[in-house]
Amino acid sequence: MKKTIFITLLFISPFTFSQKINKIINAKEVERIEKVLSADDMKGRAIFTPGIDKAADFISSEFKNAGLKTFNNADVFRQSFIMLKPKRQSVSATADGQVIDEKNIIIVTTKKDLSINDASGFEKASIKSGDNFFNMVFGFISAGKNYVVTVDTAFAKSFPRLQYFTKQVNPSETSVIFILAATAPTTFKIEAGHSFDTLKLANVVGMLPGKSKKDEFVIFSGHYDHLGVGKVVNGDSIYNGANDDAAGTTAVIMLAKYFAKLHNNERTIIFAAFTGEESGGYGSKYFSEQLAPSQVMAMFNIEMIGTDSKWGNNSAYITGYEKTDMGKILQQNLTGSAFTFYPDPYTEQNLFYRSDNATLARLGVPAHTISTSKMDSEPNYHKVSDEMGTLDMNNMAEIIKAIAISSASIVAGKDTPSRVDTSELK
User: Fold this and answer.
1) In 52, 65, 218, 314, which residue has its Cα 20 to 30 A from 234's Cα atom?
2) Is 5 a member of any domain?
3) CATH number of the domain that residue 340 is part of
4) How many domains does the chain have?
5) CB-side exposure of 269: number of CA atoms within 13 Å?
6) Which whole-number Å values give the CA distances from 322 to 158, 295, 343, 352, 421, in the listed order?
C-alpha cells in the first residue's frame, strides 16, 4: 500500500506543480508588467530622468505586492547611491621625458587634484596587441587598485572609446590611467585637475529570507534602465527598451511573485533591478559591493529574453557556460521538459563580462546571464523599434518558468554551482 501511495504522489506532484506555476507565471501577467515598463510614458527609462524614477516606483510596488522584504532591513526597496560626474579642468603628462598628447591619455579618477609619478606606488600594467582590449579595461577599472596602463598603439582606433568610463565614476573607485604608447614608459609624471557633479541613482532590491540557509544568497537580476529619448527615427524618438531590458526586469518580478508564493526557499533569494547598465554597469557594481562574494551561491542575470533564440522557442543561452557547472545543473533540473539551455554562441563578443553579472563573476561567483538575443542579428537592439509589439509573451513566460524550475535545487540548497576560476583575469 505504501509503495502504491508513493508512486501515485510522484505521478500527481508534477501536474500540481505545473498548475501552480502556470497560475503565477503566464503570458497575460508577463504582458501586464512588460506593458507598463516599456510604455511611452516611461520615456525610455534613461538614468537621471523622471521616467526611470517612475519605473522604480512601479517595480517597488510589485515587490511589495509580492510580499518581499527590503534588502538589509532598509526602509524602502530603492537602493540609493551616488555617482560622480567628472569634468577635466587640466592635464599635463610626460613619459620618459617626452610630453604625452592629451588625446593619448585617459584618466578615470575621483581625485580633484591628481599628481603622480613612477615612484607613487601605482601598479604598472599593459594591454598588448592581440589582448582582449575591453575585457582587460573592465578588469583594471573594477580591480580596486591604482593603475597606470600602457595601451598598445594597435588599439589606437578603440582608445578614444575609453572616454565612456569617464562620464560617471563611483566615489569609491581608485584611479586608473590609460596611456596610448608603443612601449611602456620607464619614468612618467602625470598631473590632472577635475571638478565633480554629484548624481543620484537607485537600484530596486527585495528579498525572501531563507529558512535554513539564510546566509547563503541566490540572486535573480535584470536592469531596468535604457537609453531614454534620442534622435527621431520614422517619427519616433523614444527608445522603449522593451526587450533591453524591460523583459529581464519583468522576469525578475515574475520570479519574485513565484518564489514568494512557494515560500519554501532554504537559501535567501535576492531580487534586483539594476540601474545604469547602459552607462557602465554602475548599479550592479554598487549592489555587488554590499555583499560578501563567498555568500553568493549563484546569480541569474536575465537580459533580453523577449525574442526567440537562434534555436527557436523553448530555448535560451547562458553566458560563460563553460566557466562553472551551473548550466549543467539547470539543464538537469529540466530533464523531461521541452526547454534547453545552450552555451553562449556569441563568445567572440565576450558577453560574460559585459552585463550585470560581471562584477560578481570576476570575484569567483557563479554569476551568469541568461538571454535569447541573437547578438549577430537582433533587429531592434538599441533602436526605437524595441517595443512591446516585437516580443513573444508566450515564449517569455516559458523562459521564465524554465528559470524558476531549473533553479529550484539551487534555491533549495541541494545544489551549489562551482566557482569561476578567476586566475585568467590576473
Assistant:
1) 52
2) no
3) 3.40.630.10
4) 2
5) 29
6) 28, 22, 7, 11, 11
What are phi and psi for residue 178, nearest 5 degrees?
-105, 130
State how far Cα 109 lies from the chain centre. Answer: 23
Residues 311, 374 contacting (CB under 8 angstroms): no
The model's pTM is: 0.87
Report the C-alpha gap between 273 and 78 in whole angstroms. Answer: 9
Q: Among 145, 175, 197, which residue terminates a domain?
A: 197
Q: Letter for the amino acid at 47?
A: I
188 in the same domain as 108: yes
**DSSP H stretches of helix in 238-367:** 247-262, 282-289, 326-333, 358-361
Domain containing 67: what range? 23-82+199-425
C-alpha grid cell for residue 68? 518581499
Q: Is residue 174 within 8 Å of 89, Cβ to Cβ?
A: no
Give the bridge partners for 415, in sequence order: none
Cβ contact 141:222 at 8 Å:
no
Q: Which residues contact 24 (CB under 8 A, 6 or more apart)?
A: 254, 257, 258, 261
For 107, phi then psi, to 5°, come to -120, 120
- Digit-coded pLDDT (tens) for 399-418: 999 999 999 999 999 999 99
